[in-house]
């Protein structure tokens, strides 16, 4: 095993893993995460702890080994899972349902607090709900039926539905701004939607010319909302600047099979992580050409100043993300394999602070509490 990685075998295929958010004011590392399963006879949503409190003192349990806190049966495969806040988790089901579970910290139990059955559907059948993004109290879901649905937690109805948003499956969704979302679909398109507009048309469409390779995942740069990363069926990692035309800024051969998830590190976005059907989990790091550490080049979390953007001392430094610094960046991208050996498909990953968690079809959860960020 690679140093710092704990593997937990859980006798179910894990489709999704997410850290519970930690309050931004505290410097603590995350210690609770949730998982969802798929392709099992009975699927579940589970809460795990890597906190020291969870250790039962048995000799064969390592410090930091994930301990099951509680679980709840889940109708259908868990196709997406997001924390709405510290207590609530939203799941997307293959049955088309959108479900909010509440984690009761006192009793360490989970219960269903809200359920929208068949939110996604065809005329005569359920349509899997494929993706969720939350900006509490708002929840946006997308599905195989090409619908985009806007919910509000604690409201029973649906706030808004964009019918026929897509003629193909929408695989993933992210917020660009509080009123704008970006979706990716099975014919290689990115579409931007503005909820302030009444119609059912996207405000912008971007795509890989002529390829029509299905895109499975998208993530937005935490500081620079115009930068997004996508991954698709061909295993390519694409970085896009949605302000610039409708082509990706850069394409990188990342994986040898479908890329299932891509995530920028939420507080240090020069680091990015991707996972794939090929059994690999990659850590991408952009580094500047100069020896000056990036924190001296533009303050905390502000990425790296490109050569052309460095102003004379005392002048205004215009900050350019290190993901958009042109051809020279190819030499500055380091990739590291994060898992000890090729496993079955790595379906999901999440990273917060120095902690990384991922889930696999090999019925294992891997946790690394010392990610070099």
Automatic annotation (TrEMBL):
<keyword id="KW-0853">WD repeat</keyword>
<keyword id="KW-0677">Repeat</keyword>
<dbReference type="InterPro" id="IPR036322">
    <property type="entry name" value="WD40_repeat_dom_sf"/>
</dbReference>
<protein>
    <submittedName>
        <fullName>Nucleoporin 43</fullName>
    </submittedName>
</protein>
<dbReference type="Pfam" id="PF00400">
    <property type="entry name" value="WD40"/>
</dbReference>
<feature type="repeat" description="WD">
    <location>
        <begin position="208"/>
        <end position="250"/>
    </location>
</feature>
<feature type="repeat" description="WD">
    <location>
        <begin position="252"/>
        <end position="294"/>
    </location>
</feature>
<dbReference type="InterPro" id="IPR001680">
    <property type="entry name" value="WD40_rpt"/>
</dbReference>
<dbReference type="GO" id="GO:0031080">
    <property type="term" value="C:nuclear pore outer ring"/>
</dbReference>
<keyword id="KW-0539">Nucleus</keyword>
<dbReference type="InterPro" id="IPR019775">
    <property type="entry name" value="WD40_repeat_CS"/>
</dbReference>
<dbReference type="InterPro" id="IPR015943">
    <property type="entry name" value="WD40/YVTN_repeat-like_dom_sf"/>
</dbReference>
